Amino acid sequence: MFGATEHSPTTIEILNLFQERGQSQYGGEAVSQLEHALQAAFFAERARARPELIVAALLHDVGHLLHDLPEDAPEQGLDDRHEALAARWLEQRFPREIVDPVLLHVDAKRYLCATNEDYTRQLSGPSLLSMQLQGGPMSPAEQAAFRLHPHWEAALNLRRWDDAAKVPWLKTPPLEHYAGCVDQVLRK
Ligand code: FE
Fold first, then answer.
1. How many whole angstroms from 127 Cα to the centroid of ligand 1?
2. CA of 106 relative to ligand 1 center, distance in Å
3. pTM of the full predicted structure?
4. Residue 56 Cα, ligand 1 centroid: separation in angstroms?
5. What mean pLDDT, rounded, does the chain reach?
């Protein structure tokens, strides 16, 4: 157990990961991995999401910090399966409420593209390219299966924060602030 003023071992691990790898570019976008993570968490917090979903937003791309594929993997026709890698890492540390929206955040894009034209129109070029590699828009049968998942709506919310979290120079609270959210969910 960890006290009220110190970080949990998992939180320290997360702080180290972002410190070591967070400056890498976020897949063809004008922000770093750390900025992208902070913006996604910030949008979740601003929407008054539960702490678990704020943590999921912060860590949704932790898979990118864990693998050694090049940043331009999609341009090379590679799907890095970063959501599955993230989920395997997260499930050893966090409850399903955090793991599942992360695991589903790629499928959430495929769902939204199949069900909402406005959504597809606002996607960035790199995001559209990676979706084609990830299977393209969902079929009606895939959509129905997706909606059976207990955390499917949380995954859609996370997806929208993820898509918005690409604003150069946007001011957000620092990583230390969200480290507090991580500690909070781990204390429960
Ligand atoms: Fe992302």
1. 9
2. 9
3. 0.91
4. 11
5. 92
